[in-house]
Amino acid sequence: MRADRLLSIMLLLQVYRRMTARELAQRLEVSERTIHRDMEALSISGIPVTAERGTGGGWSLLEEYRTNLTGLSEPEIQSLFLAQPAHLLNDLGLHKASEAALIKLLAVLPAMHRRDAEYVSQRIHIDGSGWHNREEAIPALPLLQQSLWQECKICFTYLRGDNQVERLADPLGLVAKGSTWYFVAAIDEQIRSYRVSRIQAVQLLEQACVRPPDFDLAAFWKQSSQNFTSSLRCYRASINASPEALPRIYGSSRLFRIEQTDIVDAHGWTTFHLRFDNDYEACAYILSFGNQVEVLEPADLHQQIIQLAQSVLACRQH
Q1: Which residues form the HTH deoR-type domain (predicted)?
Q2: What's the structural domain count of the chain?
Q3: Distances in Å between the alpha carbon of 60 and those of 4, 13, 40?
Q4: Contact yes or no for 62/17 (Cβ under 8 A)
Q5: H or E stretch at 24
Q6: Is the dihedral of CA 188, 193, 195, 201 positive or negative?
Q7: Does the residue 37 lie in any domain?
Q8: Cis upstream peptide for 212 (omega within 30°)
Q9: Is the dihedral of CA 133, 137, 140, 143 positive or negative?
């Protein structure tokens, strides 16, 4: 709705002081032309928005102007009271602060909205951890967090395999992937990420860090994750599976990815096109089905399974 967007524009300008039409358009997912029309509407309604052209320019509010947020919509209130990942807030030392903030917000909400907040918090719980996550020691996290707040360069040692390497870095951000923390930093003009549990020591320096003016932490992490996923080794195999094998294949799909399925015949045999991390995993997994599975391709996988089965029989005979 346009009214919501106009309010969002005022709040964004109040928080960020000055934003370009492009930045506002990207943030609100509209066109720049729409932003210019919205600015005209704000100006006509008496909101003191000003535009500055040239490098460093953009839209801004007069410095003395402030808007008070007097109401939140029902979905906005519900989103604020969804359970946050408590272990991540604990890692950052913010769990109690988060609880206190929500209590204060709850206290000032009208009675009908207070009920909405309590309602959603008792019916939706978000657990960001997986079933097999291992707890990692992250003693370096507080100093890394401090370096980000103080915007200072740091020197740290990092455990790479069995070796320790030393790095001089400009801190850029922290990212939580599940329950695992990663430190993003600029080193020798290259942006890299480091697993926090492998950072052995951190020294904060007096020199101010240099942050790329156009750096976006969320955008960097999204692209970095995509690059990592595409670089992973993969091994594709196609099999025919009997009806008896289907429940186990669907139940253990965390070991591989099912890319496509096709029904073969009326007897229930199904063709699966699977993607494994490597040929050894494919070989061992498919062999465990015995005669419930037939290998279609690649041809060398069929031969590997025969050799593996023969080696198992040879061991039993000895």
Answers
A1: 2-60
A2: 4
A3: 18, 6, 13
A4: no
A5: helix 21-28
A6: positive
A7: yes
A8: no
A9: positive
Both 209 and 243 in a single domain?
Answer: no
Mean pLDDT of 44-62: 84
Sheet holding 257-263, edge to edge: 257-263, 270-276, 235-241, 293-297
- CATH code of the domain covering residue 146: 2.30.30.520
Contacts of 265 (CB under 8 A, 6+ apart): none
Q: Kindly list the distances between the CA atom of residue 140 and the CA atoms of 90, 148, 154, 205, in Å, as whole numbers in the listed order.
A: 14, 13, 12, 15
CB count within 10 Å of CB 266 equals 6
pLDDT of 106 > 80? The answer is: no
Angle among Cα 8, 10, 13 to the nearest 5 degrees reads 105
Stretch (H or E) spanning 183: strand 180-187
* Residue 266, token pair as written in the block: 């009326």
pLDDT at 48 > cutoff 90: no
| pLDDT, tens digit, 9 for 90 and up, residues 229-244 | 776 668 888 888 988 8
Q: What is the pTM of this model?
A: 0.56
Phi and psi torsions of 23, nearest 5°: -65, -45
pLDDT average, residue stretch 281-294: 86
The phi, psi pair for 275, rounded to 5°, reads -125, 120
Q: Is the pLDDT of residue 264 over 60?
A: yes
Asked, for residue 131, whether it belongs to a domain, the answer is no
Contacts 24+ apart (CB under 8 A), 18-22: 18/52, 18/57, 18/58, 18/59, 18/60, 19/58, 19/59, 19/60, 20/57, 20/58, 20/59, 21/58, 21/59
Quote the CA–CA distance of 30 and 235 in Å, as a whole number: 42
Range of the domain at 18: 2-61
CA 259 to CA 239: how far, in whole Å? 12
Q: Which of 213, 231, 249 is the last residue of a domain?
A: 231
**First CA to last CA across the chain, in angstroms?**
76
